[in-house]
Amino acid sequence: MATQPEEFLTFTDIYAQNYLLAPNDILYVEADNIYSRIVCENLIIRVPHPLILMETLLPDYFLRIHRSFLVNQNSIVALYRRIVMLRNGFRLPVPHGKYQWLKECLEATETNTLP
User: Fold this and answer.
1) How far apart, in whole angstroms, are the C-alpha atoms of residue 108 and residue 91?
2) Which has more confidence, 3 or 76?
3) Cα–Cα distance for residue pair 46/15, rounded to 1 Å
4) 2, 19, 30, 56: which could join 37 in a potential S-S bond, CB 3.0 to 4.6 Å?
5) Would you say residue 8 has pLDDT above 80?
6) Residue 66, number of CB atoms within 10 A of its CB
7) How confident is the model over 34-55, as pLDDT tens digits?
8) What confidence tens digit (pLDDT) does each residue in 56-106 have?
């Protein structure tokens, strides 16, 4: 089965610079007061949107793991009780109440991607 190409998203940072990003290139998005920081492998973009708006703009594989973080589940390489480790070595906090939910989301994704 062929997969459809990923749509690119355009973001304008707080300095009016435009960026064209594939959602899967985004590791996570972090709340920064009324702004958000989009974090990629080699790039951080500060955009004038709150995290709740970013949650609606990004695909469903971005999970709200914390009140301050949306993470691309494709960038998660390990889940521990209090943190997730991303493919670039970054660690993000996971509150106690979100651990089981996140574990189930990741397990469901693994099950759905098996041949």
Assistant:
1) 22
2) 76
3) 9
4) 30
5) yes
6) 19
7) 999 999 999 999 999 999 999 9
8) 999 999 999 999 999 999 999 999 989 999 999 999 999 999 999 999 999
The residue ranges of every structural domain in the chain are 9-113
CA–CA separation, 42 vs 53, rounded Å?
A: 23
Provide the CATH topology of domain 9-113. OB fold (Dihydrolipoamide Acetyltransferase, E2P) (2.40.50)
Six token digits for residue 32: 């920064």
Extended strands (E) in 1-115: 9-12, 18-21, 26-32, 35-40, 44-47, 62-66, 69-72, 76-79, 83-86, 91-93
Q: How many helices (H) and strands (E) does the chain have?
A: 2, 10
Nearest to 39 by CA among 62, 16, 56: 62
Tokens of 96: 């106690």
The contacts found for 7-12 with CB under 8 angstroms, 24 or more apart, are 9/57, 9/58, 11/38, 11/45, 11/47, 12/47, 12/48
